[in-house]
Amino acid sequence: MREPLLALFRDTTRTLAPAASQPRLLTAELSMYLRRFLRLGALSPQLAPSGLAGLDARLAGGFGFGLHLVCGETGIGKTAFLDSMAWEAVSSKRPVLYYALRDGELGAWERLIRTLGFILGDPAVPLDALRFHALAPDDLEMLTRLDRSLQDAVLPYLSLVGTIPAYTDTLSALIQDVRLRAREVSERHGKIPLLLVDDLEHLLPVSRPRQLPLVLSRLDEVLAADSTPGLLTMTMSDSLLLGRESLPVHSVLTLTKASGSATDTLEQVDLDLKINDHTAWAGTLPLLLERRSGLFAQPPTPIEHESE
């Protein structure tokens, strides 16, 4: 087998000049496969910073590849937390796969428009008027301008997915869809994407306690194998709260109402963090949820309560 193969390539290898005198190859001379190999070879498992200094410090720089579970009661801000992670990633031109299963693509677009208006210093976006088809001409012009900015600067890096094409196994359909989309955006941007899924209840019914660890374990294994960091939201339950330390995920982030007072523009939320690795760190980080932007922020002087 060896000799016929050598003979097959002998004529082509003789035409190559020695390495010392080999002229620099132009990109156009590289084959499709070599270009793809070099592009994929440049990828590395990159951390996904949260943009929250206290949290990133505890995560050793950001979310590593694998599954991270974001828990909390209904209305506590789990979706807002995912939105914050999406904006942080986009600001560094990192691709994001956002499965907006709870509110759908339109709901996610509305939140993006509202946040973009806040970032650019525009008046409050009249989304209620939009829903009732009562937009004034000036409001329509502002909304059109914001949407254009969103399309040009944000959505090239943020892929919104509202539904998963599935037949009998929704989880397998999600995994297949994530892998296809992740491969595409990795090749386009040269960076491994951040996966955001909102939320588990809309992904599949997890009514039996025994099913939850199996679902989470499968997602974590796939993300770890693909060197992809992923965040998934889930509504808090008593059984989840008691067993969160044994869940097969890299970290569990539980959002709870803070005991401190809130203002008209800021809401205090505590983030209870449990990291399931050799450090086994657990503690509470205070955060602020900005009502106008819908994003989380770091308090000026955070106070951390640790438990070993």
Q: β content, as a range?
A: 15-25%
The assigned structural class equals: alpha/beta
Q: Count the domains.
A: 1
* CATH architecture field: 3-Layer(aba) Sandwich
Q: What level of helicity do the residues show?
A: 40-55%
CATH topology: Rossmann fold
List the helices and strands in order: HHHEHEHHHEHEHHEHEEEEE
CATH class: Alpha Beta
Quote the distance from N terminus to C terminus: 61 Å
Model description:
With 308 residues, this protein is α/β, with parallel strands linked by helices. The chain has a single domain, classed as P-loop containing nucleotide triphosphate hydrolases (Rossmann fold), CATH 3.40.50. Helix content is 41%, strand content 19%. It has 11 helices and 10 strands. Helix 5 crosses helix 7 (137-154). The longest helix is centred in the middle third of the chain and has 20 residues, at 170-189. Residues 12-17 and 302-308 have low confidence and may be disordered.
Fold blueprint:
Layout (H helix, E strand, L loop, with lengths): L1 H13 L17 H10 L11 H6 L7 E7 L5 H14 L4 E5 L3 H16 L7 H5 L5 H18 L3 E4 L8 H20 L4 E5 L1 H4 L7 H15 L3 E7 L2 H6 L7 E7 L8 E10 L6 E9 L4 E3 L7 E3 L1
Helix pairs in contact: 5-7
